[in-house]
Specification:
The protein is built from six helices and four strands; from the N terminus they run βααβαβααβα. It is of the alpha/beta class. The chain has a single domain, classed as Rossmann fold (3-Layer(aba) Sandwich). It is globular. 29% of the residues are buried.
Length: 150
Amino acid sequence: MGEAHGIAGARDARGRPGTVRVTAIASLTPLEELDAEPFLVDSRSQHAMCARWAEERGYVVTRELLVRGLRPDHCALWTDVEAGLVDLFVAPSRRVLERALTSVDEFTAECARRGVRVETVGRAEPSYDAGMKARIHRRLSLPTAGYDGR
């Protein structure tokens, strides 16, 4: 894993280089871990980090996955790949992938076998103060009470 540039493999209907289509992977981490692992709980920030990374490269996020302990062979990972709708997977960090998947090494091997890149954003995780943690807690614990996450 690491940063890669270019659009190798992505082609439009006429065979010209096209837009790279990205699936962003975020970890589904229980709210109970908010104090110890705020970034892993904050899936919204994980997806936003991936979206910024993709936008900076002219890529487009076509799917967002929010998973925990998913097997590398699970169909949720490969349906869009098999349909030709995904060129690469991105996650904020290996740490996120380690929570999201049961085996990062098996997943990256399967990506290589299928010809799909897997990248990590590689930026520092944001620092969380008490107010930020409180907003995350409110957003995740009150969705059915009409709270819209803002």
